[in-house]
Structure formats: C-alpha cells, structure tokens
Design brief:
With about 110 residues, this protein is mainly alpha-helical. About 75% of the residues lie in helices and about 0% in strands.
Length: about 110
C-alpha cells in the first residue's frame, strides 16, 4: 500500500509540474502525505491550496480547514492551539455557508 501511495504521489507531483493550478491535485497530494504520516508535507500542500487567490467551486474550504486542524491535532499537544484555530475557522466557514443557504444568520457558539 505504501508503494501505491508513493506512485500516486509521484503521479500527482508530475501532474502539478505540468499545471500547478490543479486544486484537486493539491488536495490529493495532501491526503496522500497524511496517509504516509508525513504531516509537514501535507500541511504545505493544504496551505498552497488555501492561499490561492481563487478557490474552485469543488474545493470545500471548511473541509480543508478541518483537515488542517486534524493534522495539527495528530502532531501532538505542542500543536493543539493551531488545531483549535483551524477547527474554529472550519466552523466559521460552515456557519457562513449555512447562513447563505438558509437565508438567515447563524451563530457559532464557542
């Protein structure tokens, strides 16, 4: 399985070298690095994704923030503050999305 993940990473990196604007490839690379427990590389790809000027519609920002928070949590207690910060960001984005869909303001408690 690790060999397959390595092949997938190689393929996705080659794809990004051809077209560095592929949000799906960035997200997939981050996920592959999480699967390999290479959290720092995963964070680099997620950061590259969320710092883009414009996110494609298929990218769920709340989900990406949640995944980043999860990585920080897995990295251990030294990173819990960062985990909480990104969990909060995820909740805030989710609340704004629900507010837009429902047409009414939503409040995130916490």
């Amino acid at each position: 399985e690790i060999g397959q993940t390595k092949l997938g990473i190689d393929f996705l990196e080659k794809s990004l070298s051809i077209d560095p604007n592929q949000a799906a490839a960035l997200s997939s690379l981050a996920g592959a690095h999480v699967a390999n427990l290479n959290y720092d590389s995963a964070l680099e790809y997620y950061q590259a994704l969320i710092t883009r000027e414009e996110l494609p519609a298929e990218v769920d920002l709340a989900d990406i923030y949640f995944r980043i928070a999860d990585i920080y949590q897995k990295k251990g207690s030294d990173f819990f503050d960062e985990a909480i910060r990104f969990y909060d960001k995820s909740g805030s984005v989710m609340s704004k999305s629900l507010s837009t869909v429902l047409g009414m303001p939503m409040q995130v408690s916490g």
